[in-house]
Amino acid sequence: MKIKYSNRILLAVIFFPLLGRAQEVKTDSIQEVIVHANRLQIPFSKDNRNVEILSAEQIKQLPVKNLNEVLGLLNGVDLRQRGPFGAQADISIDGGSFEQTLVLVNGAKVSDPQTAHHSLNLPIPLDAIERIEVLRGAAARVYGINALTGAVNIITKKVDKSAIQANVYTGSSFKNRDEEDKNGVYYHAGTQIGAAWFGDKHQHQLYYNKEKSNGQRYNTASQNDKIFYQGNLAIDDKNEMEWLGSYMYNRFGANGFYAAPGDRESEEIVETIFASVGSQHQLSDGFYLNPRITNRYNEDDYRYFKHNLSSARSLHYTNAFSMELNSQYRTAFGDFGLGLESRFDRIASSNMGKHDRNNHGAYAEFRTEQLKNMTINVGAYINYNTQYGWQAYPGIDLGYSFAPKWKIVFNTGSSQRIPSFTDLYLNQRPGNIGNPDLFSEDAWQTEGAIKFQSTNFIAHGGYFYRNIRNFIDWIRADMNDPFQPFNIGKNKIHGINTNFLYTFQHNDIRYRVNLGYNYLHASLEQTEGLTSKYHLENLKHQAKLLFMANNTIWNASVANRFHQRISDKSYFLTDIRIGYNFPFLSVYADAQNIFDVTYIETSAIPMPGRWYSLGVFHRL
């Protein structure tokens, strides 16, 4: 479809009024955020890594209704959906695979040892999110295993007042469903109810969310139920507890999701329970201690023939239990961070068998600002895995302020990814089989960048180089052979990334403009004649332009994004939201993919064309 780019640009600024001289706004909250993408919890303005933050205020204004849609608007993040509205999606960062990105909630790992296909099975409503932090680059020194290309950390809100709220929304393309199943118009609908209780020393919040879609294509209908609860207890001024529990039921038709064209009648049901309990203790003026335990249980029921459960059915039950102890000691010379963690992974599967492995890690970090105009953060993570033995991952971050608002940053470090149980033991002949002889992937990444930060403008531009040894790819030499993973060699990526956030205010209207561009050049040492299952679809060019405007009564936003993959497939998408606030009631309308672009994010699954949504939000 040919579309004039002038129309796209015009639409991107359609809500931009003629302005006189813009007034500077007060310090943006992002500038003051304490970034959890580092265990020392460094203020955003002083961090020397490539970190992007999307705040709750921004999320509220964007034309999005679930976490997957939000992640798709972040710089360097490649979100590849097999089904819209949160049915199933994979996430990767800067050209890595979906297995190489670590997902966390409040710093707790939620990755599933079976496969990273389940990383986004997160029952966290957007209303409960305080912000999303994306840490790009080698993150093993910060988070340990499986943060090879970076990490996405979802920070939830703390209750500040008692309230009851409800959010009801629905949408449609107003077109008949594709293929031969043309009975009815394609639609989706959802409802979310929540309650918060604020006490002097304890706070609680509870959400329930239900979504349903009849599916754009044959056998792609989906439904999911989500429950999320979080509580906080302030024991005294120096001791605090926090606990979290969540449950998700996700059922969807999986036509073409994993094994096209033979999986036309397939279906998948995933149930996930995640819980964590942690506390924060100030033991002295400079010494802080933070213990935490977490548990993630997942059931995955994949039915290749949903009408015949006696054949080609895969049942997987996984459990990951973790314990960690983080500490921080602040001195006049600098801050020290020390910590220990253990993780115990288990799986019982109909086609992988029963397996378990344990992982134990320790880290040490030191950060100082005592050198003139320079900040240094250096540390290492030491890991022992019962399958792969001892490994060490050092790293260093440097920042030099050569002017009041300008800073040059440099960071280099190593990271790794331990193969999932699917990589090692899967037995789905003739489609896919695992390889128990795999080594873990190891990477070294170096990045240099320049940053600018003022009251209302944040800019970042940088270059990075990453070299992954023992890169794991699912390959085959013949079309009749199953795909099988191998450590096929080195995966090298050169990347350029830029991001600009400009915030200003004119009269009573607040404006945000967020522009980002990323370029990746990837090469892979591979024997000729082999067919790869994943890596050939990495992003080459990625650009975004987000524009938001709001005051106390209304808000409007336009989200533009351009993707071009190594395969030269490209697409440009534009979404719009307009919202209006009444007393205790908000109404919003979205138009997504307004140019009705035909595009595919993964496999051969077409995504929806032009889509309209209407929602009502009530808070008491």
TrEMBL record:
<dbReference type="InterPro" id="IPR036942">
    <property type="entry name" value="Beta-barrel_TonB_sf"/>
</dbReference>
<dbReference type="GO" id="GO:0044718">
    <property type="term" value="P:siderophore transmembrane transport"/>
</dbReference>
<keyword id="KW-0812">Transmembrane</keyword>
<dbReference type="GO" id="GO:0015344">
    <property type="term" value="F:siderophore uptake transmembrane transporter activity"/>
</dbReference>
<keyword id="KW-1134">Transmembrane beta strand</keyword>
<protein>
    <submittedName>
        <fullName>TonB-dependent receptor</fullName>
    </submittedName>
</protein>
<dbReference type="GO" id="GO:0009279">
    <property type="term" value="C:cell outer membrane"/>
</dbReference>
<feature type="domain" description="TonB-dependent receptor-like beta-barrel">
    <location>
        <begin position="176"/>
        <end position="594"/>
    </location>
</feature>
<keyword id="KW-0732">Signal</keyword>
<feature type="signal peptide">
    <location>
        <begin position="1"/>
        <end position="22"/>
    </location>
</feature>
<keyword id="KW-0813">Transport</keyword>
<keyword id="KW-0675">Receptor</keyword>
<dbReference type="InterPro" id="IPR000531">
    <property type="entry name" value="Beta-barrel_TonB"/>
</dbReference>
<feature type="domain" description="TonB-dependent receptor plug">
    <location>
        <begin position="49"/>
        <end position="151"/>
    </location>
</feature>
<keyword id="KW-0998">Cell outer membrane</keyword>
<dbReference type="InterPro" id="IPR039426">
    <property type="entry name" value="TonB-dep_rcpt-like"/>
</dbReference>
<dbReference type="Pfam" id="PF00593">
    <property type="entry name" value="TonB_dep_Rec_b-barrel"/>
</dbReference>
<keyword id="KW-0798">TonB box</keyword>
<comment type="similarity">
    <text>Belongs to the TonB-dependent receptor family.</text>
</comment>
<keyword id="KW-0472">Membrane</keyword>
<dbReference type="InterPro" id="IPR037066">
    <property type="entry name" value="Plug_dom_sf"/>
</dbReference>
<dbReference type="Pfam" id="PF07715">
    <property type="entry name" value="Plug"/>
</dbReference>
<dbReference type="InterPro" id="IPR012910">
    <property type="entry name" value="Plug_dom"/>
</dbReference>
